[in-house]
Amino acid sequence: MTQNTELDLDLGKRHIVIQRRYEALGALNDLLIAVWFLIGSFFFLNESLVDSGTWLFIVGSAQLIIKPFIKLTSLIHSGRVFNKQQQGR
């Protein structure tokens, strides 16, 4: 007999929906980070765009901070759903 641990939540279809939403949000965040850094890199090739490029790097760096918050929010959300499911039994 297998037991559920905190990391192995059996939430069924609802878990898949929650997980996909957070994965999509994380993927969008990653895409935007890549876009800001790529554009910022090109801006550094032109002296007049260096300041704008620097700001794009700052924005991309700030979005790197968002990554762990998306993951933590996903884990908290899944945990709350699991707790509600356990209370309903």
Concise overview:
78% of the residues lie in helices and 0% in strands. It is mainly alpha-helical and 89 residues long. The longest helix is centred in the last third of the chain and has 38 residues, at 50-87.
Give a structural overview.
This is YrhK. It comes from Idiomarina baltica OS145. InterPro entries: YrhK_domain. Keywords: Membrane, Transmembrane, Transmembrane helix. The chain crosses the membrane at residues 24-46, 52-70. With 89 residues, the chain is mainly alpha-helical. It has one domain (13-87). 78% of the residues lie in helices and 0% in strands. The protein contains two helices and no strands. The protein has helices at residues 13-43, 50-87. Helix 1 (13-43) runs antiparallel to helix 2 (50-87). The protein starts with 12 loop residues before the first helix and ends with a helix. The model has no long low-confidence stretch (mean pLDDT 86).
The description of the largest β-sheet is: none
- Uncertain segments are none
- Share of helical residues: over 70%
Shape estimate: rod-shaped
How many domains? The number is 1
Radius of gyration: 19 Å
Instruction: Report the β-strand fraction as a percent range.
Output: under 5%
Look at the helices and sheets and give the structural class: mainly alpha
Continuous helix count: 2
State mean pLDDT (0 to 100 scale). 86
Number of strands: 0
Instruction: Give the N-terminus to C-terminus distance in angstroms.
Output: 19 Å
